Structure formats: C-alpha cells, structure tokens
Amino acid sequence: MDRKPFHRLSADAWDEVNNPRPETSDFDRVVEAALSRRGFLGGVLAFGSGAAAMGTGLLSGGSAMAQEASRFGFTPIAAQTDHTVHVPEGYDWDVLVAWGDPIHEGVAEFDPESGVTLENSDKVFGENTDGMELFSFDGHQILAVNQEYVNPEVNLPGAPEGVPQNEGHVTKLQNMQGVTVVELAEGDDGWHVVKDSRFNRRIHHRTPMKIAGPAAGSDLLKTEADPTGTESLGTFNNCGSGRTPWGTYLTCEENFNSYFGSTDKEMALPEGYDRYGIGLDGWGYEYHVHDPRFDVSKNPNEPHRAGYVVEIDPTDPGAVPVKRTALGRIKHENAEVALAPDGRVVVYMGDDERGEYMYRFVSDGTYTPGGSGAGLLDEGTLYAAKFNEDGTGEWLELSEEATGMARDEIHVFTRMAASAVGATTMDRPEWIAVNPLAVEAYCCLTNNKNRGVKPNAGGDETPVGGPNPREANHYGQIVRWRPEGDDHAADGFAWDLYVMAGNPTVHDDAYGGSENVNAGNLFNSPDGMQIDSAGIVWIQTDGEDSNEGDFAGMGNNQMLAGDPVTGEIVRFLTGPKGSEVTGLTWSADRRTMFVGIQHPDAPFPDGEGSLPRSAIVAVKRGDNAQIG
Ligand code: FEO
Ligand code: CA
Ligand code: CA
Ligand code: CA
User: Fold this and answer.
1) Atom of ligand 1 nearest to the CA of 542
2) DSSP letters along 408-419, please?
3) 3-state helix, strand, coil in the chain (%, to 5)
C-alpha cells in the first residue's frame, strides 16, 4: 500500500487517505434497497407499551413534531463554517483547558509557538481530548478525560514531518496520550483546573497497569518483560468513556493497532494481527523503531495487551488502572453501564470499524447501591448483537461451545468469536448511550463506505439491511433497542432506527435521511452520545465538514439535541472547522456542560500566531440555569 505520511490526521482521515472510498456503486440498487428498508421500518414501530410514543417521531415523525411544542429551551443555531465555537443565544462558552496546559503548580505554561517540552510532557493536559466523565467526591469535582492520539507534527516541531527521530521524541508522544485526571473548580471568572489538587495525574503510554479477567495470565498475554501476563505498561488510543455506579472511570482503547510496527519487514504476521489491523509499518508514530516494546518482531504478544476497557479510580491517584479483559478485546469506542433489575451490571460496547460488531457484558455478581464493584467487571458473560429484519434482535453468547475457542482466546480475539456466532456486521458502532428515563439504549453507527461493497477484515459479509440499510453509507444512523421485559440483561430486544442522517436538500431517496432530518438540522457521522438526566439525547458528530455536495448545509462538526419521544433533533453547538466535537459531561450542579473539541484546523482557541489546540469548553446558560 502506498502509505502517506501521518502528519496531522485523525484516525478517520488517515483511513480515508490509506483506504480510499470505492468509486463505483450501483446507485439504483442502493436506492431500492434503502427505500424498501424504510418501508419495513414503518412496521417495526409497534412493539411494547411505549412503542407508539417511541415510534411517532421516527421515520414518520414529521406530523407529530409539527403538532407538539419543542421541549428544547433554546433557539437552534444555524450550521457554521468558521474557526470557533457557537452556542444558542442566551448561552456562553469558555475554554476550560487545552492541549499543553499545565496540570500541576510550577510547570511552565504552554508555548503557543513550540508547544510542550519533553520534560513537561507528562505534567500537562494531553492532546486530542475525547471521552470524559466528571465525578463528585468528598466535596471535590474530579474530571477524568481521554487524550486519544497525537499529531506528531505539532508535538515534535523539530522533527521533519513529525517523524520521531529518537527515543525522547517517542517518549514525548507517549506522554501526551492516555488519560488526564484533574480537579476542577468554578470561580468568579469561570471554571479552571485546581493545579495543586492531590487528585491530578496523568496516565499515559508508559503507566503501569494490571490485567484482570479471563485473559489475565494467558500465554497470549505473556511477554519477556512480564512472564505472568498480568502487568502491562500504558493505555492506548483512549477514545470514548464510561462510568460505573461505584464511582470509577472507564477508558476505552480504540485504534491501539496504530502504535505497533516491526523492524523486521520480512516477518510473518502472527495469528489475529490482520483482523485487528496490526501491520509491520504502524501508522507513523514510529514507536517500534525507538522502543522495542512496540516492535512486534521482538514482542509479538504486546499488541494482545491492548484493546481493552480500562478501569481507573479517579479518587485515588495511587490506584493502578486495571484492564478488564472480561469486556473483550476490540477497538472499543465507549462502555455504557446499566443495571439490570436484579442488580447485575450490564456494559454495552461498540467496536468502531467497518463491519464489526456491538457487544454486551453481563456480570455474574450483582451491585448493591453504595457497595463495591470489586470483581463485577471480571466475571460474567460476553455477547455480540444480532439484528433480525423483523425488528427483533438477540444477544449471542460468546461461549467456548458456540465459538469453538478457548476462554482466553475469546477475550483476546473477540472479533473472531463474534464472527463465529454470526453476529450482525454493523456500520461502525461508536458511542452507546442508555436512556436513564426509559429502558432503552442507542448506538451511533457513524458511517460505512464498505456497506454492501466489501466484507469486514474477517471476511464476514456486510449485506445492506436491518439497522444498516444503505449501501456505501456515508451519512450514518442511530439504532435504538429496548430489551425484553425492561431488563438490560435479557437476551432478546426490539429495535428501530432513531434517525438516519442524510441530506434532503440534495437527495429525495433514502440518502435524504429520515423524516426527523430537515434543512435546519443537517449533520453526518454521529459519533459521541450521552443522554442527560432529563432524557435529552446529545449527539456529537465526527464527519465530513466540506459543506459541499452531499454534505452541503451541514457545516462544521456539531452537537445536536434529540427528543427520544418525538424524534425532534435540533442543533445546539458547532465546533471550529476541521474539528470533531467529542466528549460530554456535566458539573455536579448540572449548570455547566463540558464539551470536547478535538483536532481543530486553525489556531483555536488562542487565535493567530498559536498552534491549533484540542480543548474542552465549558458551556453555561446566561441565567445560570441547569442544562442537563
Ligand atoms: Fe475514536 Fe471511534 O472514535
Ligand atoms: Ca477522534
Ligand atoms: Ca469517537
Ligand atoms: Ca468517529
């Protein structure tokens, strides 16, 4: 493959460069398939007692929306194409923290021209902010936030095209990623990081971790440095997040494959590498050249120690993060926790790659409110989702019997286990969110140019149908399901589509989107998602922001608010050009909403003369009322 240099590319942009979209598609067939699916969806809506209310706003929701007053207390904003953040009238935003800001006293401020020094690189807010959760503990507000990846070019201004030249360069990149934990406080001039807080810490690519659960101690996880297979270094490509009822943070390892490479270009790829996209070249971070741990010719099991959900106690800066292998090894987007009526812990998870799967973990033990979570994420059952055409679905257990795999293999090569049981290949499952006011969950299926075009990396077909109704889907959709018996631990569910993104100003077929998409709320590629305490679905996008052609009128990436009952969706916030809006959490009093802005193009937020910086912004109402 003709690989182009990494430069400043997001994972999606990198993939677009190196695996460009197919140019041909049979348009007539596309339209026919999607339209028939659309008719079918009309029939899906009649399930459960709440189905009528749930369904009216869906693909036929226009009339219901017109009749009911909007529940949103703001005037939706127009699409934007500029280099800053916009929020509705009556709201304000301010920068909380940006890449390179010190998180401890005595650390030098960010240099707008040269960025961060190697010495300070593990003492500042990392790069490319993503999933985050705010915890209240003992009168403190503690933010745990992911730093997904780095743009080597801006972090290594002395290295040609950002290609690391030495061990120090690699160490700096490793330090700038992972997770940041910081205490926050609100003063007269807004929110700030409490730099002398004992909770502040950086967790990065070299931080000691424990490995727990069914794969811990497996031969597949043993390395020369760790013959026990239970202790590793670093958490990688931390994308989405989650939180447990017992007050811990879940950080999710997504494109972990990007950091590994080989100095031996002739070596045969070990089993399982292909399916996870682990190759000999890496994605340009060049760790393997300067740090043998990432050289798969020397440490072929090291990649098996990444791709997990990692649990962190934000209240104990000395606590060792734990990789929970019971939750499977995939390119984890986020981890959304729900409780079953009997107290078992349910974790919903998406694997963000074209044609990969959605997963669910159900604990063996039960959680008692106020009690401990010890062991709950280590012992349980892992499932993959199967969606039927008739609007039903089921969770398929990834048992040894059903997969023909040993227990440790299931938790290291989880994708193959899901393939073995015939789960449904999905259009890139991103964030999953559970509605706190109804027993239902939503998953953003961001887009999939390969839908109906080619199989996934495991050779599983990706037919058009079910919750993935459009060939070469470049707009994305949100699938929603309600478990049988109002029990997230039940194996059966009913599903429908909450929204199909599209562009009705360009297309009059299924690519025009569902009826709750209109000229005033155009968007593509739903990705981040949270449902707030009032049941509003907050949708963040990570898509094409050219504002041209099929994407005309969509503007920059954005955050929208959706009503789960009527289906109404309105635009709340727009990000600077080039950025992705990702990560959302609230202050304890729900008067501030924290929103992540990742990889802006231009010098946001400091203006001309500064490097562009990923940042978290704090959004408030002018009257300081609650917003979530
Ligand atoms: Fe890091 Fe799938 O988003
Ligand atoms: Ca991203
Ligand atoms: Ca994402
Ligand atoms: Ca994305």
Assistant:
1) 3
2) HHHHHSHHHHHH
3) 15, 30, 55
Q: Taking all residues of the chain, what is their mean pLDDT, rounded to a whole number?
A: 92
- Distance (Å, whole) CA 498 – CA 526: 12
**Does residue 408 line the site of ligand 1, with CB under 6 A?**
no
544 lines ligand 1 (CB under 6 A): no
Please report the pLDDT score of residue 9 as a whole number: 62
User: So where are the chain's domains?
Assistant: 4-67+76-96+119-597+616-621
| Residue 42, CA distances (Å) to 32, 50, 512 in order | 16, 16, 16
Identify the band that residue 20 occupies on the pLDDT scale cut at 50, 70 and 90. low
For 91-158, the three-class secondary structure string (H helix, E strand, C coil) is EEEEEEEECCCECCCCCCCCECCCECCCCCCCCECCCCEEEEEEEEECCEEEEEEEECCCCHHHHCCC
- Percentage of the residues of the chain whose pLDDT score is greater than 90: 86
Is the model's pTM score more than 0.90?
yes
Mean pLDDT of 445-449: 98
Q: Is the separation of the CB atoms in 124 and 100 below 8 Å?
A: yes
Please, what's the b/e burial string for 510-521 (b: 16 or more CB within 10 A of its CB; e: otherwise)? Answer: bbbbbbbbbeeb
With a cut of 70, say whether residue 31 has pLDDT above it: no
Residues 6+ apart with CB under 8 A from 421: 384, 386, 396, 397, 398, 402, 403
- Please identify, in words, the CATH class of the domain defined by 4-67+76-96+119-597+616-621: mainly beta
12 lines ligand 1 (CB under 6 A): no
The ligand that comes nearest to the alpha carbon of residue 598 is 2
Residue 444 CB–ligand 1 contact under 6 Å: no
* Percent of the chain residues past pLDDT 70, beyond the cut: 90
Cα 354 to chain centroid, rounded: 14
DSSP string, 209-250: EEEESTTTT-GGG--SS-TTSSEEE---SEEEEEE-TTS-EE
**What is the model's pLDDT at position 532?**
97
- State the distance from the centre of ligand 1 to the C-alpha of 239, rounded, in angstroms: 5
What burial class does residue 550 get, using C-beta atoms within 10 Å of its C-beta: 0-12 exposed, 13-18 middle, 19+ buried? middle
Residues linked to residue 92 through DSSP beta bridges, in sequence order: 620
Rounded CA gap, 440 and 436, in Å?
Answer: 8
User: Read out DSSP for 283-296?
Assistant: TS--HHHH-GGGBT
Tens of pLDDT, residues 299-358: 999 999 999 999 999 999 999 999 999 999 999 999 999 999 999 999 999 999 999 999
Q: Which of 66-75, 242-251, 588-597 has the lowest mean pLDDT?
A: 66-75
Regarding the beta carbon of 239 and ligand 1, being less than 6 Å apart is answered yes
Q: Are 516 and 568 in contact (CB under 8 A)?
A: yes
